[in-house]
Every structure is written in C-alpha cells, then in structure tokens.
Design a protein that fits this description.
- The complex is a heterodimer of chains A (496) and B (1014).
- By secondary structure, chain A is mainly alpha-helical.
- Among the domains of chain A are: 252 residues, Serine Threonine Protein Phosphatase 5, Tetratricopeptide repeat, CATH 1.25.40; 52 residues, no CATH class.
- In chain A, strand 4 and strand 5 form a beta hairpin.
- In chain A, helix 3 runs antiparallel to helix 4, helix 7 runs antiparallel to helix 10 and helix 10 packs antiparallel against helix 13.
- Chain A is globular and about 85 Å long.
- The termini of chain A are far apart.
- Chain B is mainly β and 1014 residues long.
- Among the domains of chain B are: 98 residues, Sandwich (Immunoglobulin-like); 76 residues, no CATH class.
- Chain B contains twelve helices and 59 strands.
- Classes of the chains: A mainly alpha (496), B mainly beta (1014).
- At the A-B interface, helix 1, helix 2, helix 3 and helix 15 of A face strand 29, strand 30, strand 35 and strand 43 of B.
C-alpha cells in the first residue's frame, strides 16, 4: 500500500524530465508566420475571388443575365431561404480580411510601412465590397475573438473603411528604404508602385462617398477623390495566367468553370445555364441602318450557333427557344479562362465623375467624362475604329450637354461594368428606377410573397452567423423570409 | 507428412519436459478424464507437490511420472479444479477432474487486461466469447458484436466493402471528435480509425483469433485507461497456445452475397421537367412512358452477386514452459457492387515462455495485409447510392461505354453550346465510375507485443509491456480520361505511416491482509506515443491516357502535401480494492495524465473513481444463487486534438504563391474535457447459474467539451477548437441469460440484451442553439445536429405551420403552409428508444443452431435518399401521388383565430413536390422499427468414428446466413444507415447514424463452411 508514496514522487521526477518531450504540439511541417512579401499575393488573389463571390449573384440581380430554366431558386426567384452556405461572407472575413490583418501585424513588426499601407487598403476594399451586399456587419468587434460580435450599422462600417484608408495612405507616405521590398513578385496589382496604391485608395473613397453623396457628405468630396484618383491612375486589375494550367490560375468566369476551392458550393459559374436578358440586350441594340448592335456585344460574348443574339425575359428562361439562338456568354473579354478580373477600372471613375458633375449641375463636364468613359471602355475591349465611330455617332450616345440625362450615364456605366458587382450597387442606389435604367421591369417568377419588392441584399452565411450569433440575427430580423428585400441605409435614405 | 511433423514436435516437447524426470524410483501411470463427460483430457499438468518435476498428459489423457510412495501428485488444468493424490502402493492412478465453474464463468478481463472475479466488480463489464463472434460470420469484429452487447450502438455505413462501422457505448459523449471506445488488443492500443472514410481499422484483425472480448462500457470500468476512456473500452484477448499436444484447426468458408433491401422507384414517368419530356436532364419529371419505350430496372441491373472465400488455419500447443499459437487467415472476395474486391491476409504468432518459476515472457506479432477496392468515392455527406437510385430508367445503367471502351454519355447537360472545349457536363451511368474509377485502400500492418512478468512475491507481481501498432495505408483513386468533371483524367493518392507505441509498467498486489480482508492493488505508469506521417499526391491531365501515374502528368498539374502529426501522453495511476469476505468490496482509482496536445499550463490533470459492491446473497443461505448490488462514480479527462493550440499558414495555391492562413485557428487556452459518470447495477445468478440477470443504470455528463467546429467568421477564422458545451447521457442496460432446457443430448441457451440511451444537449457554446454536424447536411429541409435541451443525435429542420392542436395549417391555395421562419426546429431523434439482441442456441447431439434477432424500437431515420429521389421525380411517392387530386388533412384559418377542417382538393403536381413537399424536413423523418435476423448458423460435427476414419480429431460443417430477414416499417432501403460513417480519427462532426443519404443496403449473405481439427 505504501508503495504509492514512492511510485508517485518517483514518477513525478521522471516526468519533470519528460516535460520537454511533451513540447511537440507545433506542426513541424507548417509555418506559423512568414514575411509580409510572401503574404500579399494570396490576399490579392483572394480579393479577386471575393469580388467574384458577389458578382456571381449580383449579375443576376442587376439583370445582365437570367437562367435558362426560369425556375432557378436564387437567380430567378430570389429565394435564398434554402441555401446552405454563402461563401462571400467567408471570403471577406477570412480569406481576404484575416490574411490582411495578418499582413498588417507582420508588417508592423517588420517596420514595413509599404506592406502595412497596402494591407489596410486591401482590407478597406474588402469591407466595402462585403457591406454593399450584406449591409450591417461586425466591424468594431470583428477579429477580437468574440463569438457573438455586435453587427455595426453600415455608416459605422463606412467610417471604419475611411479610417483604414486614411491610415493606409499615411503608412504609404511613411514608407522608406527600411521597408521590405515590394515588387512585381509580391505585388501582382501595382508591382510595388505606392503612388498607384495611393490612387487606388482615393478611388475606393470615391466609390464609397458616391453611395451617400445624395443625402450625406455631398458631391464635392466625391469629385475631389475621383480627381485625386484619376491624376495618377493605373487600372487595378488582377491578371490570371495567360496560359492557365490549374483552376487556381483561371478566371472564375471562364468556360472551364474553375472551382479551386471545391467546398464552396455556392461560388459557382453558371454561365452555362445562363442567357442575356432582353433588358441588357436592349441597351446593346442600336438598330440603326449602319449599326445593328453595340460593337461591345461581340467583345463581351461570342455569337450563338446561328449567329443570332436572342435574349430572354428576366426569370422566364428560354421560353421554348433553343440555347443555340442565344449568344454564348463564354470567351468574351471578361469570360475566358485567362481573362483579367477588375478591381476598379478607369471608366468606372470616369462615369462616377460624369454622374457627380451631372448632379452638381455641370452638364458639360458630365458629358465630357461620359464620352471619355465610353471611349475608354471601347478601347479596352479592342473595338475597331470604324465600329467605334459608328457607335459614337449613333443615337445611343449623347452629343450635346443639354440633352444628357442621368439614364445615359448610368446605362453606359452599366454596359462598361459588365459582370461587376458595382452595377448592382448603382441600380439599388437608384432604387431600380426607370429614370436611371429605362426599360427595367420586375421579373415575373420572383417569389410572390415578396409582394413586388426588389432584391436589395444577400443573406448572411447560414452556416455560421445564424448558428453562432442568433441574437444579433434576431435583432436585425435577418431570418425573415423577405430579409433580402430589406433596403440598405444608403438606399432607404436616398433622394435619387 | 503432417503426422510425422506432429510426432516430431510432440517428441520435442517431451524432451524439454522430461529433462528432470530421470533418476527417480517408481513409475506411476494413469489416465486423466473430465468428470463431466469422461472424455480423456490431454495437456493436464501432473507434478509432484513441492518438487519441480512434472509432466503432461498425452493425447489420450495418459501420463507417466516417476515418484515415491508417500509423495503427493497434483493434477491441474485450466478450467478445472486441481486435485491432489497421495501415492500409495498402486502403480496406476486414474483421475477425473471436475470443472471449475467459478474460473470459467466469473473471471473477466478488466482494464489493463487484469483478470478479476466478476463477483466483486463494482462496475459493469460484458464478455463475449470468441465462438459467439465466429457464429456471426462477420469479417469486421465491430459488426460481429452487433446485438451481443447491451449498450453498444453499432451502425454500418452501408453494404459496400470498405465502408466503416461505428460502435458507440452509452451514447455520444463528445459533440465533435472521436466517440468510439478505446480498442485494446492483448494490452496494446490499436487504431480503429477510418481515414478518408475507409474501413474502420479494427476490421484488419482476424475474428478467428479472438478468445474473448470484454466490453468496459462506462467511465468507471475504463478509468484506468485514462484519456479516451470516457467512451468506454473494448478489450480483445486473442487465443493463446495451450500446453499439450499440437493441435491444428483449419477452416474454409464460402460466402455468397446478394443485394439487400433497396429503395423503390416509380416506373411511370420519363425524363423531363414539369410534365414535359426533356432529354437534357436527369430529372424524371417528364410525361408518362409510352408503351414502346423501354424501362430499365436500373438498381437491380446495377447490383450483382458477390462471392467470398475465407481460409483459416491455426496451430497451437506447447509444454508447461513454452506455449505457442500460430494462425493464418486469408480472405478474398467480391461484393454486390461490381468491380469491388476485398483481400485480407493475417498472420499471427504468439509465444509464451516461463523463464523461471517467477519470470515469464510472452510476445506476439501480427502481420496484416488488407486491400480493398471499392465502388466510387462518396461525397463527404453520404454514400454514392444516389447516383444509382436517381439514374433515369429511360437509360440502361449498363450502357456506360461503347464497345471500344469509350464513355457513353447519354446526353450533355450543356446542350446548345457544343463548341465549348472541355465540355465536361456529360451525363453517364454510375457504372462508368464503378468500373473505371474505383478507389482502393491498401493497408500493411504489424502489431507487436511483448510482456515481461515477474512474480516478486506470491502477492506482488511486476510487469512491463511494450507494444506497437504500425500500419501503412495507401489510399487513392483515379478518374480515367473521359470521366465527366475531369475529362483529361485525375488522380489522388495518399500514403500514411501511422504508429502507436504503448509502454506500460504495472505493479500488481494481491494479498490477504487478514483471513477476511483481501486487498488487490495496481500501481503503474503508462506512456503512449502516436505519430502519423502522410504524403499525398494529386494531379490532373494524363499526357498518356492509358497510364494513370504522376509520371505522365506535367509538373504544374501535380500537387503535393505532407502531414506530420505527433502526440505523446504519460499517465501515472493507482487502483486499490479491498474486499471483505466476498461480501463487500470497495475500490478507488486515481490517475494523472499529461498530454502534449494541451497547452503547457493545462496539460497535467488528475481524476479518480470510486466503487463499491455488496454481494447480499452471501448473507443468506445461497448455495444455489448469487446476488449483488454495485455502485460506482468515475471522472475521466480527455485531451485535445493534435495541433489545436496554434494557427498555421498554408501554401497559397494561386498565382504568386506565398502563404495564407489555414482555416483553423489556434487556441492557446484549451483545457481537458471531463466526463463524470454514476453507475448502479444489480446482478443475479439463480438456479445454479441456469438463469443470470444483470442490469445497469448509468448517468453520465460530459463537460467543457472540446469542440472543433465552425466559428463565426468575424473572428477571422473558419474553424477553431474550444471548450464549450455539455452533454448528458443516461440509460439502462439489461443482460439476461438462461438455459431453459438442458437434458442429455439437448440444450437450449438464450441470451437477451436490451438497452436504451437518452441524451440531452445541456449547453452549447456562447449563443449557439443549434449545432449542425459538418457531414450530416444533405439538404436544408433537415440536417443532423444537436439542439439545446434536446437529444444529442437530433435532426433539425423545417415543419409545416401547425395550430395548437397540432394540425397542419392549410393555406388559401389548399396546400399546407411551410413554417419557414423556424427552419431550425428539432424534428427527430436518431437514437433508438430501445434495442434488443436475442440470441438463441440449440444443441442436439452433433447439431447446433444459433441465431440472433435484433429488434429496434423507435429512433428516427432521415430518409434524405427519398428526398433526393422525390426532387428528381423518381421516388415511389411520386409515382403513386403525382398529379392526383388530394385534400390535405389540416385546418384552414378563418381569419378570426378559429380553424375549420380543410376541404379544398388540390393537385399534387410538380410544383407541389419540388417547392413544398421536399422543402419540409418532417416529410422525410421516419420513426423506424425493425426486426432483423443478424445471423443464423447451423453446424454439424461429424461423429467421432467417422472423423477418426478420416484421420482428423473433429470435423464440422456449417451453414450460415447474415441479415437474411429484415422486417421494417421504413420506406427506403435498409434502415441501418450512417451516411458519413463513424467519426473515428478525429474527423469533424458527431455521428451520422440514422442519416440515409444514398446508402448502399447491407447485403444478405449465405455461407457454407467446413472446419477440421487435427
């Protein structure tokens, strides 16, 4: 019996030497941290994926496309009530956000102001992309380890974005030779050019201020930011491989329907099952003697089998026609495996400038920016000179400042930003009104229970938010069946 | 030839033994027989009391020994009471030994392999003999235990070879992670993991080698094992060599397997949408089949009859000082699924030597090669049966290829745009994948075991055991070029080396302190080291379509990954038990563990258990019966999954490379999870052991659950391991055994096991109310999950809106209204209410018959297979109800809060089925009962005179059937389902038992076997 009194101390003695042998709980084949230049490429790639994860829905809600069936739950009926995941939420908070925060922390330790600045700007852009689909979301209590953070209202989110951009720009200005090198290897967007990053930060501000300019903050600061951005502008574009071998190197819009992250059932490419809407096709139809279609149509899509360009009514599917009569959505400028994916394009800034000038009452400036926007987009898509001039001469393009209407600017921006989620923001800013989008109509197959209300937002990720933060979800009312029709702060307050 | 080897070995044994038997006086001879039946006993030890000389009886029970008059001869043999005889003048002493009922019936193997008298145990242990397992003819030991253990919930994942089976004792104690009991083979922990969803690794072991299996069901029984003991333990003891003549047993079995119960399909409507024919969809919502159109019975055409051969040989024997056991098993077969194969070889060598009177050494080595080639790669949430059950009957499932071997796509989903390169939307029969893309698992395993035991004093034993379970597992699959989704081909292969080293030192004390007080104690230390190294390779686009190797894949298309997991644990423990006269016993167990997986501050933890028993029958005149009460309380701790304390970075796969965060966050504050359990039991043995009864009530609570789960994304991570939540399980286990008839040639034995577990989710992390299981979510209508204050193995989903009386509320349109604001209602409990296992055994002369009925009462099954088939328009429901007029049994709101009965007839059309019926989980949750005959085995032993003539000592012929009868109210196939398999190996998600998502039914199989002993 007494043996225990010997064995236990003896064993304890043994274990004090074993203590070291127990220190084996760090994975020896996986790093815990790495230097900032090795963290940026992943953030930039994930940001492209993040934009896609919104665009994948927004293109249907902004009515560029509709499903060929007419029965698709989300695309045709706006019914998000049976989804299991909403990946876009994760692509912000984890894939871009968490990595950007890791980069910022690491850059601060290293004293690399350049990476710290870029990290903050990327985080800001990711927040803006996310909040414009989700609305209220945690920002002040995000990344604190809190399992049930408070959802901040969108104005608070915008303030945080503004703070991140200001801090980011300050860091860029503080950058010196002591920083870790940022070059084409580590920065796939601007190859380490901090001046361009500065312009990009101004562009994000311009986009953000534009959303509220009509009721808060005014148009002047938007104009200032746009001009600051355009002064030293280089397009913020994520380039996929020109000869992609793996899904990771392919544009998600491409015909290979790449799926590098296999577990994200909802971030898919359904162009195979999609056709252009008559609403969009009307904008691309000129129907004049020497010009039938907007020349960009041939750049954005490939002709159908019969060289015809049928269009479908929104949410009604093919209605008995054959797919071959519709244009093929693949292998257009933005929809091939090797297509680039834009963060922000010059034409977007030009159309912002046009819109702002228009609302400021400066129609000549608006017209100039508007025409420049069209030309920039035409040139980007490689439209041939004679088609371009035919188009510019057509009735589709305003020539006189007095005749310029807001719908001219918004429809041209809509065409130029084909497949970009920003178009859905614009459409909601103008509350789907015909004054901005002539010919817009409410789709027939939308759930009748929505009572004619338009789609305004995406639901939060059901797999996490509705499980871990049910109190906040309840407070917001986000489990209502018609949650997706609830207007945003900047839309509810809009005077447009 | 055989005979000469036998006599040689026999001679060798004699030589070894008789080294001392010269130079003595008189020679005594005689025959030792069994008092029961008078049959001669070979291998009985005969020795002179007080001396070192001894001998064994020969094959006919004969012995010869030299001894002097007045000396005492001692006859002893395992399972019999020893006998002494003083030598007189006689030269011949014949002895008949009486069986020792006590040792045969009442010694059970408990924690650390210690044999204990069952009469004084303070907790519940159930022992299953090897023959009972062999009667079931199941190659997977886990399945062989089905119905034989009160409290063991055993669920197969399906009837395809290589699918794992899950065993859970006393309910789920951990929400995520491993809930399966510890598996110990001869004192060494062995892996029962099912990596990559392949077979649970206990299936590697040869059931024929098993002497018995002891099930330590609760924390009290298994507390000495420390970490992981919260889920109980399965202690397997393999056969040992027995002293005496060499015995050879050989057996051969052929099994024929046919497909089990399949879900039914409609045979009325062809492909299409909403009633219109459309041959560009797999949906069967088209018009009615025309008379001239063929309708293929695809499920029946898909499955086939499988044949398995199983050969088994074992040899054992030895002397008093050395015994050996050698066995070999080879099993090879096909299954009900085409192009599948199981190939298992097992070789076991065991030896034991008594080095001196006090020191003994035993060692064993088990080599296993187990290769399984099986059907298709299932999705993580379920079986691949869906691809069979939903394949349109318009297409012949057997037409998966052209005569030249090219894939035969029945259509392209992507019609209208054929110019797209890489069109991988082709739809093809699932037989393409089965024949061309099977996955294979190849395991090479060696289990080594050495035990040195030293009897320091007659009451003190020291022992040291070192064991290693090592296996190499290669798992992989190939998608040959032409497979939709990977037209240019793809491969994945992972090779892992998994090692578990266990080292245990024990000091065992067994002493009568006073004539009335007996004390036993164990003090020991234990260390365990686990290492899992793996390398996985994936690649796509075979440059040469005929060769499926990375050698023909270009470098950029090859992906590599390395895994290296390690864990070390130390334990120090003590167990003291004091017995008073075999009337009372009291025991205390304490154990301290150290685990590398916990943060340094929390890695050491102590827990203890306490138990008492009271054999009240000892107070009375109880020559013919025995009665006991027992009670125990135990607390056990559990450590965290490996590498949960730090977050890691992983390689960024996209352009530019570098690193991104891994989705799993670290948690530097983890602490051990604890389970506390109370257990009360009562035992009776009545009518001279003719009737036994054992009942146990337990109540267990697991707290500070170590959960690895999704976390809200605003934390910056996707998954994290944390301490939260608590689970409560309680239940009753009853085991009864009886011998209703025992007369001369005829005997009838009955065993009944009955059990039921009730669980409740007491606490969930933070604000969480519903915890979904990662791999149990086939459709949003219902998922597997746990809801606060509800049973743990729950089903969560949607129901219709109901009024206060529970009637469905019918909308203005005449259809029931979905309660879609409350999508997370608790709608089912997947745990059966009560289970019964009823085993009957009849013996008449040379015949014996045994069969096991398995009854299950209650418990819900989520028929997600039917949900999917209904969405696709191919379920039997659709055939029966589609386009029929129907009045829903429900009520209509009159608008003033009053309800009237619904009378409005509506048509059950496409729209109803796809947007209403399949969106409601309760339509697919079924309360399932079954009566199932797990096995029936008839065997016949040839009479001795015939076997003698055949030159064998015995010969047995056996017919057996597995799963031949299944009576159930379930609307689908076989209701024994577990869509994502067991959670062994630390995978995320609790058990998915009761989730039917494309399950392959358990086969019905029939076997013929012959076994011979030499």
């Amino acid at each position: 019996m007494k043996k225990i009194f010997y064995i236990i101390p003896a064993a304890l003695l043994l274990f004090s030497s074993c203590e070291e042998k127990l220190d084996i709980n760090q994975n020896p084949v996986q790093p815990v941290t790495t230097s900032s230049n090795l963290m940026l490429p992943g953030i930039e790639g994930n940001m492209a994926y993040h934009l896609y994860s919104h665009a994948r829905y927004a293109t249907y809600h902004s009515m560029y496309l509709t499903s060929r069936y007419g029965t698709a739950r989300i695309e045709d009926r706006w019914d998000y009530n049976q989804i299991t995941r909403l990946g876009a939420w994760r692509w912000h908070y984890f894939d871009v956000g968490s990595n950007a925060i890791g980069l910022i922390e690491r850059a601060q330790q290293e004293g690399s102001d350049n990476y710290e600045g870029v990290g903050k700007i990327m985080l800001a852009y990711s927040y803006l992309t996310a909040t414009d689909s989700f609305g209220d979301m945690p920002v002040l209590e995000a990344y604190t380890g809190d399992f049930s953070p408070t959802y901040d209202t969108q104005d608070v989110v915008y303030k945080e974005i503004e703070r991140l951009l200001d801090e980011g720009m300050a860091s860029l200005q503080a950058s010196d030779a002591g920083d870790k090198t940022m070059n084409a290897t580590s920065d796939l967007i601007y190859q380490g050019n901090l001046q361009h990053w500065m312009s990009f930060a101004h562009a994000i501000k311009a986009k953000m201020y534009l959303r509220t300019a009509n009721f808060d903050g005014g148009y002047d600061r938007v104009m200032n930011e746009v001009n600051a951005a355009l002064a030293n502008w280089k397009d913020a574009i994520y380039y996929y491989s020109s000869n992609p071998q793996r899904d990771w190197e392919r544009n998600m819009w491409g015909p290979s329907t790449p799926s590098p992250q296999w577990n994200f059932a909802d971030i898919r490419n359904y162009l195979t099952y999609s056709v252009p809407t008559d609403f969009f096709m009307n904008y691309l139809t000129v129907d004049e003697p020497n010009i039938q279609y907007d020349p960009r149509l041939f750049k954005l899509t490939t002709p159908g089998e019969d060289n015809t360009y049928e269009a479908a009514r929104v949410s009604l599917g093919l209605e008995g026609r054959d797919m071959s009569e519709f244009p093929n959505l693949y292998n257009g400028h933005w929809t091939s495996d090797s297509s680039p994916l834009p963060y922000v394009l010059e034409e977007e800034l030009l159309f912002i400038k046009a819109e702002v000038a228009f609302h400021q009452g400066n129609k000549p400036a608006a017209l100039e920016a508007y025409r420049e926007g069209i030309l920039t987009n035409m040139n980007r898509l490689g439209v041939e000179q004679d088609s371009l001039s035919n188009y510019m001469e057509s009735a589709k393009v305003r020539k006189a400042a007095d005749a310029l209407k807001i719908s001219d600017i918004m429809t041209q921006k809509y065409i130029a930003l084909y497949l970009q989620p920003e178009s859905w923001v614009d459409m909601r800013r103008y509350q789907y009104k015909e004054t901005a989008y002539p010919g817009i109509y409410y789709p027939e197959n939308v759930l009748t229970e929505f009572g004619g209300k338009w789609i305004q937002r995406l639901p939060y990720d059901p797999q996490t938010e509705y499980i871990y933060n049910p109190q906040e979800i309840e407070r917001l009312g986000a489990s209502a069946r018609d949650w997706v029709t609830k207007k945003f702060w900047w839309e509810a307050n809009s005077t447009l | 030839m055989k005979k000469s080897i036998r006599s040689m070995l026999w001679g060798l044994c004699l030589l070894l033994l008789h080294a001392h038997t010269f130079a003595q006086s008189a020679s005594i001879t005689g025959v030792v027989t069994s008092a029961d039946d008078g049959i001669p006993l070979p291998g009985v030890t005969v020795r002179v009391k007080g001396g070192t000389d001894g001998t064994f009886t020969g094959p006919d029970g004969q012995y010869t020994i030299n001894a002097e008059k007045g000396q005492v001869l001692v006859y002893s043999f395992i399972g019999f009471l020893p006998q002494e005889r003083t030598i007189g003048n006689e030269g011949v002493i014949n002895i008949s030994l009486k069986t020792d009922a006590k040792t045969l019936d009442e010694v059970v193997v408990t924690a650390l392999g210690i044999e204990r008298d069952k009469r004084t145990l303070t907790y519940s242990v159930q022992t299953i003999g090897g023959e009972d397992l062999q009667d079931s003819n199941q190659p997977n030991i886990v399945n062989a235990l089905q119905g034989q253990v009160a409290g063991a919930q055993i669920t197969s994942s399906g009837g395809s070879p290589g699918l794992p089976s899950e065993i859970i004792l006393r309910g789920v104690s951990s929400l995520t992670g491993d809930n399966q009991p510890l598996i110990i083979v001869d004192g060494v922990r062995v892996s029962n993991a099912s990596i990559n969803g392949t077979s649970n690794r206990l299936s590697d072991f040869n059931p024929n080698d098993i002497e018995n299996v002891s099930i330590l069901k609760g924390a009290s029984a298994s507390a000495l094992y420390g970490i992981d003991a919260a889920s109980g333990a399965v202690i397997i003891t393999t056969k040992k060599g027995k002293a005496g003549d060499m015995r050879i047993n050989a057996a051969y079995n052929t099994v024929v397997e046919t497909v089990g119960r399949l879900p039914e399909q409609q045979k009325l409507y062809t492909v299409g949408f909403g009633g219109t024919f459309d041959n560009s969809t797999t949906s069967s919502w088209g018009r009615k089949y025309r008379v001239d159109e063929p309708i293929y019975d695809n499920p029946q055409r898909f499955f086939q009859t499988g044949v398995t051969h199983d050969a088994n040989v074992n040899i054992n024997g030895g002397t008093e000082k050395y015994t050996y056991y050698l066995s070999g098993n080879y099993r090879n077969g096909t299954s009900t699924i085409p192009n599948t194969e199981v190939d298992r070889l097992s070789l076991l060598m065991k030896g034991n030597s008594q080095l001196s009177e006090k020191l003994s050494f035993s060692a064993s080595a088990n080599y296993i090669a187990n290769t399984i080639k099986e059907g298709l790669v299932g999705s993580s949430s379920g079986g691949w049966g869906n691809s069979i059950y939903r394949y349109p009957l318009r297409y012949d499932i057997e037409g998966y290829q052209y005569p030249n071997g090219d894939p035969n796509y029945v259509f392209y989903n992507n019609n209208g745009t054929p110019d797209i390169i890489n069109d991988d939307t082709g739809i093809i029969s699932p037989l393409w994948g089965v024949h061309r893309n099977p996955r294979s698992t190849e395991v090479k395993r060696i289990v080594l075991n050495g035990l040195l035991s030293y009897d320091v004093l007659d009451w003190l034993n020291l022992s040291y055991r070192l064991g290693q379970d090592f296996y190499n597992q290669q798992y992989g699959y190939v998608n040959v070029p032409g497979t939709p989704g990977s037209l240019e081909g793809r491969l994945y292969q992972t090779t892992g080396n998994y090692t578990n080293i266990t080292s245990t030192f024990n000091a065992t004390i067994d002493k009568d302190i006073t004539p009335d007080i007996h004390a036993t104690a164990i003090f020991g230390t234990n260390s365990e080291y686990y290492e899992g190294e793996s390398l996985s390779v994936s690649g796509e686009k075979f440059q040469n379509p005929d060769i499926h190797s990375v050698n023909v894949i270009e470098a950029p298309n090859i992906g590599l990954g390395e895994g290296y997991a390690r864990r070390r644990r130390y334990g120090v423990y003590g167990d003291v038990k004091v017995e008073y006269k075999s009337l009372f016993s009291l025991s205390y167990t304490g154990r301290n563990d150290w685990s590398s997986t916990l943060p340094a501050d929390n890695r050491s933890f102590y827990y203890s258990s306490l138990g008492a028993s009271f054999a009240f029958s000892e107070l009375m005149d109880s020559q013919h019966w025995f009665g006991k009460l027992r009670a125990s309380y135990a607390k056990v701790g559990k450590d965290a999954p490996i590498y949960s304390t730090d977050a890691n970075l992983i390689k960024y796969q996209g352009i530019g490379g570098g690193f991104v965060k891994d989705a799993t966050a670290g948690n530097p504050n983890l602490k051990p999870e604890t389970t506390t359990e109370k257990e009360f039991g009562v035992e009776f043995r009545l009518f001279d052991n003719r009737l036994t009864f054992d009942a146990t009530y337990y109540d267990a609570k697991s707290e500070d659950q170590i959960i690895r789960a999704r976390v809200p994304l605003p934390t910056g991570y996707v998954i994290q391991t944390f301490n939260a939540g608590s689970i409560h399980n309680k239940g009753i286990e009853v085991s009864m055994g009886g011998t209703p008839v025992k007369s001369g040639d005829f005997s009838w034995n009955v065993t009944l096991n009955a059990w039921g577990n009730r669980s409740k989710m007491l606490e969930l992390p933070d604000q969480v109310r519903v915890f979904p299981y990662t791999f149990g979510q086939p459709y949003t209508a219902a998922i597997a999950g746990s809801k606060l204050d509800e049973p743990v193995l729950g089903l969560i989903g949607t129901d219709y809106k109901r009024n206060e009386d529970g009637y469905m509320i019918i909308g203005e349109d005449g259809y029931p209204v979905i309660d879609s604001e409350n999508k997370q209602q608790y709608i089912g409990n997947r745990e059966p209410k009560v289970n019964f296992g009823l085993i009957n055994k009849f013996n008449y002369k040379n015949f014996s018959l045994s069969f096991l009925w398995d009854f299950r009462v209650g418990g819900d099954v989520y028929n997600a297979t039917r949900l999917g088939m209904t969405s696709a328009g191919i379920s039997e429901d659709v055939g029966e109800w589609r386009d029929r007029e129907f009045v829903f049994n429900g009520v209509v709101d009159r608008g003033d809060g009053n309800y009237v009965k619904n009378t409005q007839p509506v048509v059950l059309d496409y729209n109803y089925f796809t947007t209403n019926y399949t969106a409601v989980g309760t339509n697919f949750v079924e309360k399932v009962n079954w009566a199932r005959m797990r096995y029936a085995t008839v065997s016949y032993s040839l009479p001795e005179n015939i076997s003698k003539r055949l030159n064998v000592s015995r010969m047995n012929i056996e017919f057996s059937a597995q799963n031949p009868i299944l009576i159930t109210n379930y609307s689908g196939g076989d209701p024994e389902v577990n869509s994502a398999g067991p959670n062994a190996g630390g995978a995320e998600g609790g058990s998915t038992m009761g989730v039917d998502y494309g399950a392959i039914p358990l086969p019905k199989s029939y076997s013929v076997g012959i076994s011979v002993g030499f």
